[in-house]
Amino acid sequence: MATEHADNAHHTEQALTPSGYIEHHLSFNAHGVNGNVTDQGFWVLHYDTLIMSVALGVLVMGLIWLVARKASAGVPTKAQAFVELVFGFIDDQVKNIFHGNRHSFIAPTALTVFLWVFAMNSMDFLPVDWVAGIVSFFGGAHAKWRAVPTSDINTTFALALAIWFLMIYFSIKVKGLGGWVHELFCSPFGTKIWVWPANFLFNLIEYVSKPLSHSLRLFGNMYAGEVIFLLLGLWAATGVSGTIFGAILGAGWSIFHILIVALQAFIFMMLTVVYLAMAHESH
């Protein structure tokens, strides 16, 4: 992978400085609400993030649907055995945390989150110059495209906020609106009226910190991995010695990054299950 980065980065560097090369690959295909290409302001749509996220979600869920549709009770195919292994693994993790009817919503949600996040994280293994070359062929020499949706803070925050809203929904559904409000003001320090402000402040901090930690952990790891791949690609383009050491380090980082990609998807899924399980419980 590092040698692929090296060859393409060498040609790119002829037109871009190292900082310009990194900036180009870390820029989004962003469009403002008026349709103009821009990367400034709040009301900006990242086309690359949106298209990659939706396409990967449809692809992953479509493959699972196809395997489930062709599943049989006899000797399973390799694809069916793999899907059943993933299903069993996710179900065991949910069973250890959530003790209600997990198959109605929690387990399918955990499976969807894990597979979708894993697929988006895996885009980090695509050589960025290959992606840039394809996009430049169709969209012009200066076209920008980020292939890793989870390296965009908007993606991770959107996922975390979706889980956050589900957490509030299930809290109200299970405890009732009155029970949820009572829990906000009367736990964990008691029901005395003079501790209500402290209870509410404590719960408010908890509610705010959950989506922040949930989203930033995934974003930080994937963004850092993307930057390291770019730096290794630049190093590999500096000459023969740089190519050799860049290839060695790039291969090592790629192997290590496989663990990061899978681990971050697993952590995001586990936190999703934990938060939804907490919503079903009373303090």
Question: How does this model look, in words?
Answer:
The protein is mainly α. It has one domain. It is 73% helix and 2% strand. The protein has a two-stranded antiparallel ribbon. Helix 7 (153-186) runs parallel beside helix 9 and helix 8 (196-236) runs antiparallel to helix 9. The protein is globular and about 70 Å long. The model is unreliable at 1-14 (pLDDT under 50).
List the helices and strands and how they pair.
Blueprint: H1 2-13, H2 18-25, E1 30-32, E2 44-46, H3 47-69, H4 78-97, H5 106-122, H6 128-139, H7 153-186, H8 196-236, H9 240-279
Antiparallel strand pairs: 1-2
Helix pairs in contact: 1-8, 3-5, 4-5, 5-9, 7-8, 7-9, 8-9
Number of distinct beta strands = 2
Enumerate the spans where pLDDT stays under 50 for 5 or more consecutive residues: 1-14
The proportion of strand residues reads: under 5%
Pattern of helices and strands: HHEEHHHHHHH
Our measurement of the CA-to-CA distance between the termini, rounded to an integer number of angstroms, reads 50 Å
Shape: globular
Helix content: over 70%
Please give the domain count: 1
Secondary structure category: mainly alpha
Radius of gyration: 23 Å
Strand order of the largest sheet: 1-2
Give the oligomeric state of the chains in this entry, treating copies of one chain as homo and distinct chains as hetero: single chain
Q: Whole-number average pLDDT?
A: 82
The main pleated sheet reads as: 2 strands, antiparallel
Report the total helices.
9
